[in-house]
Design a protein that fits this description.
This protein has 174 residues and is mainly beta. It is 7% helix and 57% strand. It is built from 2 helices and 10 strands. It has a single domain, classed as Lipocalin. It has a 10-stranded antiparallel β-barrel with strand order 1-2-3-4-5-6-7-8-9-10.
Length: 174
């Protein structure tokens, strides 16, 4: 016999039951596929941006999540693998996810929203700055068209202004 608490939780949307994909989940499907990227990253305040390139494979995890696995040579780190997870939480009405990389010990936890035009996903997170202090970051994914998207990573400076750290252009592999 079920107890009252488990009966109440089972009736809530999303609890261990197959959830129906929403428009936000379908938006994430735009990112599926095989991609080539090139970009630049600022690794130190007093140095010019460094170039990097690689590949990314984005696959679905059911209809509610995507997994994006990247491979490439990262500035200051050499060959690296990255993994981004993205989904949408209907209770929070927010996009959620994580980012990890073989070159760093920090797990970035995302909470974000889509712009009204449906082209730009801004993911808020927190991570170490160039000195290792935890600060606010934003990773912004802009879908230019079905074969081109741009990722921009910005850090909130002590002056309250966003400072661009990484910009990468992703082009769909043909």
């Amino acid at each position: 016999m079920k107890n009252k608490e488990s009966t109440e939780r089972a009736g809530q949307e999303g609890f261990m039951a197959a959830a129906e994909p929403r428009k936000e989940h379908r938006w994430l499907q735009k990112l599926l596929g095989e991609w080539i990227f090139e970009g630049s990253a600022t690794m130190a305040k007093d140095k010019p941006p460094e170039k990097f390139e690689g590949t990314e494979s984005v696959r679905p995890l059911g209809e509610l999540w995507i997994l994006a696995e990247g491979q490439g040579d990262m500035p200051g780190a050499g060959p690296a693998t990255t993994m981004m997870t993205l989904g949408y939480n209907p209770q929070k009405k927010r996009f959620v996810g994580t980012f990890i990389g073989s070159m760093m010990p920090h797990m970035w936890v995302y909470d974000g929203g889509l712009d009204t035009a449906g082209n730009v996903l801004t993911l808020d997170t927190e991570g170490p700055d160039m000195e290792g202090k935890l600060v606010k970051f934003q990773d912004v994914i802009e879908v230019k068209n079905e074969d081109h998207r741009v990722l921009t990573s910005c850090m909130l400076g002590e002056d309250g202004k966003w400072l661009g750290i990484v910009t990468a252009n992703y082009r769909r592999r043909k």
